[in-house]
Amino acid sequence: MNDFIQINPTSLTGKKYWRSLDQLANTPQFREWAEREFQDGASEMLSGGSRRTLLKLMAAGFGLAGLTACRRPVEHILPMSKGIEGYVHGVPSHYATVASVGGAAIGLIVKSFDGRPIKVEGNPRHPYSLGSTSAHTQALVLDVYDPDRVKGVSRKGKKASWDQFTGWWKQQASGLGDGSG
Amino acid sequence: MSAIFSKQFDTKLRLAAGAIVLVLGAAGAVMGYLLHPKQFDTGYTPVQPVPYSHKLHAGNLGVDCLYCHYTMDKSSYAAVPMTETCMNCHVRVKEKSPKLQMVRDSYATGEPIPWVKVHRLPDYVYFNHQAHVTSGVSCVNCHGRVDQMVEIRQVQPLSMAWCLDCHRNAAPNVRPTEYVTKLDWKPEGDPAELGAKIIQAKGIHPPTNCSGCHR
Fold first, then answer.
1. What was the ipTM of the complex prediction?
2. Which residues of A lie closer than 8 Å to B, measured between beta carbons?
3. Nearest C-alpha neighbor of A89 from the set B74, B67, B110
4. Of A3-7, A78-82, B194-198, which gets the smallest average pLDDT?
5. A21-30, A76-85, B185-194 — which is least confidently predicted?
6. Distance (Å, whole) CA B215 – CA B213
């Protein structure tokens, strides 16, 4: 029992403090009430391994609660809001381009699926390569996905924007003639 | 030393083992039945973000399947139409309807409408719509009477066994390509006969080997 905490210590001098009128009255009912650890209505710990059973049931409940996720997962289709002209999803598009391999120009036709280039073929109309590609040229498709590729416009080493480029180019182009002859 | 195991322990153990086997077997059978695509996938009717009714548009109004799902005969994907296709009409028709708010927002901001996919095939399967549509397999063979569905639900299991049933005997499911989107079309004679003639004429060979679909 809690001998070192006395409800009404009698050996102390000085003012006697009380926290309720019942304590002041020091009735036997109050003393009994104060000294009980758990009051009426508190459920008693049952005997035997019931604490173990409780823990087992809690663990099982916790585990079974995960089964609430057993539904068919929802998959979404996200079509474009406004289409791109001539683009059909699932049909690859081909672009004619040219690459510089070893200093020479190689004409290429690049197959692009969903906007992502996936295959490089030679362009048979190119007078230099006549549609042939070498292993290095075939590997160029990986250049497009190179993490170190140029990702934006730069001017003299500093990052610039497309607007700046078009402004600069307009200036240059005005001095170049009108394209006739 | 006292006996650890009672005399009846053997019998009890064997009975318990038998009971466990039976319970697991029963559970396996039930789950095998419930999780089969024919039970699990058919009837799937998810809620879509926009209450689009195929019955109204394709059925009552007579909009052809190919008007919206225009990539059906060109590409392996039968694309869900882009918002622009909806706005072709709905910029004037019911232009203030609250049900179409999401469509108008999508058109204005460029964000896609998050449609819920109903007919799902696993990623290890390659399905090409164009090959089927141009061969003469109608929409109704796999998707059912879409023009009578207010909410799209999956009617066929789309399991491999179900696909092979047709791939091994395609004649009853092949029709002239003009009638592919006419969902209630019925041929004059025997569908299998007509289908067999078309297969012969076009040289249709549905693949039944593994690499036909598992690419």
1. 0.77
2. 72, 74-83, 88-91
3. B74
4. A3-7
5. A21-30
6. 6
Euclidean distance between CA atoms A148 and A139, whole angstroms? 16
The pLDDT of residue A8:
59
A108, with CB counted inside 10 A (0-12, 13-18, 19+), is buried
Inter-chain residue contact A79 with B111, CB threshold 8 Å? no
The chain A residue lying nearest B128, using CA atoms, is A90
Rounded to two decimals, what is the model's pTM?
A: 0.68
Residue of A nearest to B122 (CA): A75
- How confident is the model over A93-136, as pLDDT tens digits? 999 999 888 888 889 999 999 889 999 999 999 888 888 899 99
* Amino acid at site A29: Q
- The size of the A-B interface in CB pairs under 8 A is 69
- At A73 the three-state DSSP class reads coil
Binning pLDDT at 50, 70 and 90, where does residue A49 land? low
Q: Dihedral (C-alpha) B184, B185, B191, B194: value to the nearest 10 degrees?
A: -160
* CB neighbours of residue A96 within 10 Å: 11
Query: How deeply is A40 buried, as exposed, middle or buried, from its count of CB atoms within 10 A (0-12, 13-18, 19+)?
Result: exposed
What are the tens digits of pLDDT across the range B30-40?
998 888 878 88
Which of A71, A76, A87, A93 to mutate against chain B (most B CBs within 10 Å)? A76
**CA angle centred on B200, ends B195 and B206, rounded to 5°:** 75
Q: How many helices (H) and strands (E) does chain B have?
A: 10, 1
The DSSP call for residue B79 is P
Burial of A33 (0-12, 13-18, 19+ CB in 10 A): middle
Whole-angstrom Cα distance, residue B215 to residue B202?
24
